[in-house]
Automatic annotation (TrEMBL):
SUPFAM superfamilies found in the cross-reference section: Protein kinase-like (PK-like) (SSF56112)
Organism: Tanacetum coccineum
Residue ranges annotated for the Protein kinase domain, each copy included: 13-218
Pfam families for this protein: PK_Tyr_Ser-Thr (PF07714)
Superkingdom in the source lineage: Eukaryota
InterPro entries assigned: ANXUR1/2-like, Kinase-like_dom_sf, Prot_kinase_dom, Ser-Thr/Tyr_kinase_cat_dom, Ser/Thr_kinase_AS
Organism ancestry: Eukaryota, Viridiplantae, Streptophyta, Embryophyta, Tracheophyta
Name used for this protein in its record: Kinase-like domain, phloem protein 2-like protein
């Protein structure tokens, strides 16, 4: 999306359109016009003073959702003077604003949990042929709530991918065993080391053979 279109939709990044502030970015509400009408957007704008320092994490928020077809990302602008990601506008804001709200019923909370768990299950991809994505920053402030109380995961700035599914499963299995409520059922340190080394070997093997694949096969 062009910078001029984004400026127009946000009234040139008007203070009145500001809906969020962070250490490295501001978020602006906008209205993007198109052939079928208009879409209300949230434009996440990287602070210019941080160009070259925070860009990697900022555009990781774009790269992973686009690669895995996240419906919440609708566009971006990578300009010399602006770095912006466009999301669907979450009309109900972030989940952390509702955790203590008694109007959020038990059924609504369960449905939100199902949405989040379904999103993480897709990212972890242990049952499909795709690379595992580890979010690394799941918290209530990174869950957006929409008109129908549908919950979507955001905040992919700390995420990383290229995790071999077998490596991830091996790591997760031993990690869960370490948390067993019965002390005698927890693995010894030596077994933990063995399983972690296995997880590492799985991922190193994955990186080795993947690097030899033709580019159009990946």
């Amino acid at each position: 999306m062009s910078l001029e279109d984004i400026k127009s939709s946000t009234q040139n990044f008007s203070v009145d359109n500001t809906i969020g502030r962070g250490g490295s970015r501001n978020v602006y509400k906008g209205v993007a016009s198109h052939a079928n009408g208009h879409t209300i957007t949230a434009a996440k704008r990287l602070d210019r003073r941080l160009f070259g320092h925070k860009e990697t994490g900022f555009f990781r928020e774009l790269d992973i959702p686009l690669k895995y077809k996240h419906e919440n990302v609708i566009g971006f602008c990578d300009d010399e003077i602006e770095k912006i990601i466009l999301h669907d506008f979450a009309s109900r804001g972030r989940l952390d604003g509702y955790l203590s709200d008694p109007s959020l019923t038990w059924v609504m909370r369960l449905k939100i949990c199902i949405d989040i768990a379904s999103g993480l299950n897709f990212l972890h991809a242990t049952d499909v042929n795709q690379e595992v994505v580890i979010h690394r920053d799941i918290k209530s402030s990174n869950i957006l709530i929409f008109d129908d109380w549908k919950a979507k995961i955001t905040g992919f700035g700390l995420s990383f991918e290229q995790v071999d599914p077998q490596s991830f499963v091996t790591f997760a299995r031993i990690a869960y065993q370490c948390l067993h409520h019965k002390r005698e059922r927890r693995p010894k340190a030596g077994e933990v080391v063995i399983q972690l080394k296995r997880a590492l070997e799985f991922n190193e093997d994955h990186e080795l053979w993947e690097s030899k694949l033709p580019r159009d096969y990946k």
